[in-house]
Amino acid sequence: MLKLLNLLKDGRFHSGEALGAALGVSRSAVWKQLQHLESELNLTIHKVRGRGYQLAAPLVLLDEQAIAGFAEGECWPVFIHETIDSTNAEGLRLAAVGQSAPFVVLAERQSAGRGRRGRHWVSPFAENLYYSLVLRIDGGMRQLEGLSLVVGLAVMRTLQAFGLEKVGLKWPNDVLVDGKKITGILLELVGDPADVCHVVLGIGINVNMQVNDLVDQQWTSMRRELGQLVDRNRLVAVLGEQLQREMARHRRYGFAAFQEEWEASHLWQGRKVSLIAGTTTIDGIALGVDGQGAIRLDVDGVEKSFSGGELSLRLRDDS
Ligand code: BTN
Fold first, then answer.
1. What global pTM score does this model have?
2. Mutate which of 83, 87, 121, 171 to test ligand 1's pocket (most atoms within 8 Å of Cβ)?
3. Ligand 1 atom closest to 173 (CA)
4. Is any atom of ligand 1 closer than 6 Å to the C-beta of 128?
5. 121-158 burial: b if 16+ Cβ within 10 Å, else e
6. Is 248 helix (H, G, I), strand (E, B) or coil?
7. What band does 4 get if pLDDT is binned at 50, 70 and 90?
8. What phi and psi, each to the nearest 5 degrees, are found at residue 20?
9. Cβ atoms < 10 Å from Cβ of 195
């Protein structure tokens, strides 16, 4: 199916005969694959008698060489899938069978994209970025402290490099534009964090998505903000560079070196918030983060810090 898509991706007309010859299959087999592309990947294909088949809009697919071409330095090895359950799940599987880290898993689409707190991450074909970077962490919990906040910062810098304005962060690691979510980040860990473990930094960026009724929160995309298509291969290259830079700083100095910078981009700094932890809610005022990346709240006049993957912040109605 990917072969056929590669032939069609230029957005021009291709006759059934030419497609069949290029794929080594009959015209009726081409027809079946076209139907499959439409139903499975939700693509629109124009069929015009005498001219052939044409994708409604040209597609730029993820491509390792194109990514390397955009990169200024060295890239991490990358595994690209047309469809995968979840790039995070695949990253964990590869780490478990001994794939040497660091490496990146990308997919054109996820059938079971994972979000924070057990939520589903909507992952339509070839529109967005589904990116998982797998790292090996050798005996040092400190290397994990605040790491997910650093990833948020690196994503924010990447979006700014593409010309997005009004990008900010929401603790722990949502990236928002004008209050609308543009990126979600999910860290997953396997192994013993006090000894050797692998961490998967899962990043979902809304890139060229323009409409989607399945997303159950306020969202935006790079294309919506910039008014133009974004090359996802270039995005992978720039994101890789930003992650390399910020993670090197994090390894060397720890999260404390990011504290001020992170707070300067925190959209809810000084606002009245509720911290949700399962069925418990704690009301307070967001003071910032501590040197380990925990959220600092003023709770009835007392400063308290909270951390943990299952926590999330809401703005209070009266804030
Ligand atoms: C969130 O809920 O905000 C986090 C969403 C994280 C989504 C990304 S997409 C790439 C990677 N693979 C997954 O299954 N999830 C993360």
1. 0.92
2. 121
3. 3
4. no
5. bbbbbbbbbbbbbbbebeeeeebbbbbbbbbbbbbbbb
6. helix
7. very high
8. -60, -45
9. 10
